[in-house]
Design brief:
There is one protein chain. The chain is mainly alpha-helical and about 90 residues long. It is about 60% helix and about 0% strand. The protein has four helices and no strands. It has helices spanning about 10-25, 25-45, 55-60, 65-75. The longest helix has 22 residues, at about 25-45.
């Protein structure tokens, strides 16, 4: 439960919050437990430390999808969105 409450600072928290709107809180918690148990199994069998992928893993994985999602959410609220690339410093 504690790992799911980390919001989007960890991979597991981001995964839970990504599943929750679609599945509901209880089903998302059960779906969230599978990668958690898989990580624990790998840590115990291979004697390695846990390496978190980061809360922004899904945004980095598919940036076009993230941009479409943000645009769709802003349009639903009545806003228009324009994406401009950041200039190199």
């Amino acid at each position: 439960m504690a790992a799911s409450r980390t919001r989007e600072t960890t991979y597991l928290g981001a995964r839970y919050h990504r599943l929750m709107p679609r599945l509901g809180k209880k089903k998302a918690l059960v779906a969230f437990e599978h990668p958690l148990l898989t990580a624990v199994w790998h840590m115990l069998t291979k004697d390695v430390a846990y390496q978190d992928l980061g809360g922004d893993y899904y945004a980095k994985y598919n940036p076009e999808r993230a941009m479409r999602r943000i645009t769709r959410q802003a349009n639903a609220l009545g806003f228009t969105v324009r994406f401009d690339p950041i200039e190199a410093a």
